[in-house]
Amino acid sequence: MHKIKTSYIIVAVAVLCVGGWCQTTTTENESSSRRSFCLMSIAKTDKAKGDILSNTAATGKKSQPVTGDWDVLMSAQPKLRSRFPESFSNSEIQQVECQAWADYRKQNPNGHLNLDGFAEYAAENYGGLKVHSRPAGAAIAVDNLPWEGPTDAQNMCVVGTRHVRLSKPGYYDALGDADVKQGQWTVFERDLREKKP
Fold this sequence. Notes:
Helices cover about 40% and strands about 25% of the residues. It has two domains: about 5-125, no CATH class; about 125-190, Sandwich (Immunoglobulin-like), CATH 2.60.40.1120. It is an alpha+beta fold. The chain starts with 5 loop residues before the first helix and ends in a 6-residue tail after the last strand. It is elongated, with a radius of gyration of 18 Å. Strands 1-5-2-8 form a four-stranded mixed sheet. A four-stranded antiparallel sheet has the order 4-3-6-7, with no helix packed on it.
């Protein structure tokens, strides 16, 4: 019998809207909601996984092992953990897993997902972005998509040039680009210029 470990179910800690490049850290309630959405999305791609979710939730019993997306995600965290420095938390690695799975499935809806290929895809395509402003408390938009919280904040992003806009009442918007690198933290900092009456 195969036990679904609670720590691995958190694999879906923060699902992004598919197509989003970055996602913010969330509260426990938001994480639970997004985790459910991610797990349901996985279940839609693999009927057997949906049955596992239903049976486990209804009976609380252990499930039989299966293959496919579910098993890949359950096994991916240790491989990804070894590819990211300690400055990335397990929660952030789990964010990468879920975002990478959503992005992969968007690009390859029917493709076979294998553990090594998925771990390589996720490790090569994501990094972290830390956004700071002086003063703090500015709204953040990355690639024209709003983050859920204000500065100072950090999040996982797809590698490449990310366009950042910081906005705060009484200040001019601050704009710029951040070059997110594979498996590294990129810091984007701006001093906000106060509007004079």
